[in-house]
Input
Amino acid sequence: MSTANPRVAVLTGSPNDLPRVEKAVAVLDSLGIASELRVLSAHRTPHETVQYVADAEARGVQVFIACAGMANHLAGVVAAHTLRPVIGVPLGSTNLSGLDSLLSTVQMPPGVPVATVAVDGTRNAGFLAARILGLQDTEITARLAEVREKDKERYTL
Amino acid sequence: MSTANPRVAVLTGSPNDLPRVEKAVAVLDSLGIASELRVLSAHRTPHETVQYVADAEARGVQVFIACAGMANHLAGVVAAHTLRPVIGVPLGSTNLSGLDSLLSTVQMPPGVPVATVAVDGTRNAGFLAARILGLQDTEITARLAEVREKDKERYTL
Amino acid sequence: MSTANPRVAVLTGSPNDLPRVEKAVAVLDSLGIASELRVLSAHRTPHETVQYVADAEARGVQVFIACAGMANHLAGVVAAHTLRPVIGVPLGSTNLSGLDSLLSTVQMPPGVPVATVAVDGTRNAGFLAARILGLQDTEITARLAEVREKDKERYTL
Amino acid sequence: MSTANPRVAVLTGSPNDLPRVEKAVAVLDSLGIASELRVLSAHRTPHETVQYVADAEARGVQVFIACAGMANHLAGVVAAHTLRPVIGVPLGSTNLSGLDSLLSTVQMPPGVPVATVAVDGTRNAGFLAARILGLQDTEITARLAEVREKDKERYTL
Amino acid sequence: MSTANPRVAVLTGSPNDLPRVEKAVAVLDSLGIASELRVLSAHRTPHETVQYVADAEARGVQVFIACAGMANHLAGVVAAHTLRPVIGVPLGSTNLSGLDSLLSTVQMPPGVPVATVAVDGTRNAGFLAARILGLQDTEITARLAEVREKDKERYTL
Amino acid sequence: MSTANPRVAVLTGSPNDLPRVEKAVAVLDSLGIASELRVLSAHRTPHETVQYVADAEARGVQVFIACAGMANHLAGVVAAHTLRPVIGVPLGSTNLSGLDSLLSTVQMPPGVPVATVAVDGTRNAGFLAARILGLQDTEITARLAEVREKDKERYTL
Amino acid sequence: MSTANPRVAVLTGSPNDLPRVEKAVAVLDSLGIASELRVLSAHRTPHETVQYVADAEARGVQVFIACAGMANHLAGVVAAHTLRPVIGVPLGSTNLSGLDSLLSTVQMPPGVPVATVAVDGTRNAGFLAARILGLQDTEITARLAEVREKDKERYTL
Amino acid sequence: MSTANPRVAVLTGSPNDLPRVEKAVAVLDSLGIASELRVLSAHRTPHETVQYVADAEARGVQVFIACAGMANHLAGVVAAHTLRPVIGVPLGSTNLSGLDSLLSTVQMPPGVPVATVAVDGTRNAGFLAARILGLQDTEITARLAEVREKDKERYTL
Output
């Protein structure tokens, strides 16, 4: 479902994290939401990151998901360059169990919020993006309701 | 700006937290977003909370902001009863510096995301709600852009 | 010993946690205490959870044991819907070593206590339930005394 | 309501902690549960503590509440000398925000459970004792239900 | 000693932090090192920050000191836009005792190092800059040696 | 070197920890210090523990080493029943990386000190006991000096 | 009781910490143990520290107590230069609640143990030194027994 | 590139850590910076460490990199004996995930700074040394710019 007109951009700071990050894309796909996945680093490709955000906005991206480990600055940098909602996913790639990444994602100063989900919560980033887009698109919300029903079954023993 | 047709519901688990929580309302007011503020507790008034969420949705509330200290279950309970975006604000009311509240807000299981902001980040909860609503209402985004410009001035010395 | 008239309900938030949670049931079985085991999620099956608690109370369940990882809201939700004792077991299923689950289980507000045991302390949840039920049933306490004697032998080298 | 036939013993490791610990007694009093309050230290008066536990049991004490700061060993020592339920309250008296006390109270080995409540959760210790005693005494549960109703009013704005 | 040809740029994310940050300038002044102090925010004035770094480098700034609280992204952003040494000072401005700021400053990915000093270690940031510049300017090292001698006296009782 | 007249008692709370605890005995053996190793639990065999401490003192034990994981109360209990030096070794057997055990060992109240070494620092417990006994026995100190010399060689590359 | 022939050296890394450190001296005084107090810094006066340790040993000092905040290296440095017992006291002088100081004091490598007491546990450092010296001097142990008796009274209400 | 005239000394507290530490040397080699690698322990070979620092300085070493796990005192000891820049690398070798090592490296007192990089950040220690030396040697900075360009390619997908 990754198409020419993505509504969600899924960004990750390192190619190593792609397997985990692709779970966000899979959730979006399953909900019929077009997305695109990019490796962009706040530290190694800062200009490209800023450029990408402006360009993605122009192409109609409405929600950004930024995933990174260690000091996760990616979500904050994206949030500083757009006024659209930015979801941050702290990745638990280090010794410090993801606490470093969690705190560097969530503790943003007033005016530049990052909607933070759990450590390694890539799937929930997809679900949160869907809730946001569902405000304008009742079909998405209907699909979320279906997922919830199925989840209920799985969680009833 | 708290009106008959609120688009954002700001909930808090305890009357003691109202002074901090009112900062979220103030941000929303300043951006021209109608909101309503309620004290509702996941633990003391669980039925009322569930009832309120259903009712608020029916009245057109699009984003929920849930603020609580200690084990913050409020945001999670709200997220379990709506498919609209829920923003969680961990309040740092205890001995444990808000770490208890942060972890109990952000570490949600797949399918039930809470968009978590910083410990005591009530103002950012307002800004995040505005970014979400701005996807449907360019006036809100325009006002966010104005705030950003003013912030730039304040932060340039 | 899981019978038609269980005195303890053992709940867990996810089928993945069943192997650990079954240790609570095994302890109860070994002490002759009838129990029942259910998968119920505070977030995915909130209505079923609330319904279950009311129904279980009516059927004579006296103690609830609620086990969950990440943000463990299950114990708190159960405690909000019953006035019987609720034992919470934080499960250490995540990156954050169970600290998230511990703090979200134990840091309950006044009036809604959760009797929290150690991270992954499912066996102790069974022993704690037995101590509580032993107040009305001296046979249970007698069996606990036997276990204690055997433990003494095992721990004397 | 501290009478000749207490059903709950409230213990604290240091006279300095009495003001906080008295909140547990106040909750028990308000629920019509007779209790007695003692200063007993796992480390300074270990023999007296062990003696007291045996004696209190003989006099009919059914639930023990043990409150202490720093390395809280009091609850564990009491739990090792009785088979009745022991509630541990970590007190946040030190630099380390009560994390030391929380972990030393809750992380008990299998067979010797301590029902741990929040850091400084003395009031909840009283409520938890009441839930346990309410299993045998429906009047206590009725009073808990009244408190819950009043709490609902306080938490509905 | 803040002159037209500063060799060190001292940056801070917020005007509120100026009193603490000025201690870095005071240390540099006392060692005869020209510096300049700017308020620049990675999140509120990202373009200005990037622009400033390029400009400062062109004017001869050799070391950057970046101070910020909460999620300190400032040091990382500066390090991403220069190849000169960047010293990061985590400020302990929040509930979380500066742990958030420490981890978000120090946990940088390979290739983009931030030389991190203690929480609120603004004075040591000045001393570290002096050690770095002393490699090219023996007078600075001579002054550091004097400070060390005086410190010895102060710390000998 | 475990003989009829041990000068050091090495205690551990669980048979599972014996492999790690034996490293303390090995260090003592290598330094020619007679010791004895016992499994004794503060919680499962409290009377035996207290009895053992009194008896060991009478037989000439001069230093106690107490090793335990989770909530390590063993060292504290021993320290409460002797006036001889007690060395505590927190074992990192749980999810919480030994932080639980470290804090419950070291955070003792005034008057009842436990000489705490690193998490899993069983070897250092042996070395610390040797330093203490070396004050009365210069041969032990001479052997420690030999170990130090050998260590220097191993650590010089 | 600070005399010409001190048996305990009490060292602190900074003059600011003297009020807290003097509590160790007061405990030693009250037990009739001669001590001396010095300000010596592992970082500012390293040569003097090493020199002092050698000299103090020659003069008959048997136990060293080293108190410091932040990264407490003082105890480790002293332990590296003597084979006598070294007691480390982490001081909680910073933002990080003494966790920095605790971990940097206790986590010593094999062969160089530091007998660590609680954060700000200066009084217990005195009591631990007394237990160690009491092995050779039964009068000290007798005085410790008196203190313990008095403590029992204070802790029995 | 480890030659007779090293400009960087890479030190590690234990031979066990050599594999990780050699990554710092590899980075320096790749940037054409001569270095030398030594095993030196703040605790086991303190005199040799101090001697080495003085000697290395005399031979022209300009930057020291000190790597150690547990209580990392090595970087601090080196910083106390030189006025040249010292980079500290906390190694995550223990149970405590490197938090012990991070805090004991970074929390240095004013006047004795250690430029701390991430837990296990040996490669970044090399890059930081290169930035410092690049201030005097534009060829090093040119090579850093090349690395950065290559990194950009790797991080653009």
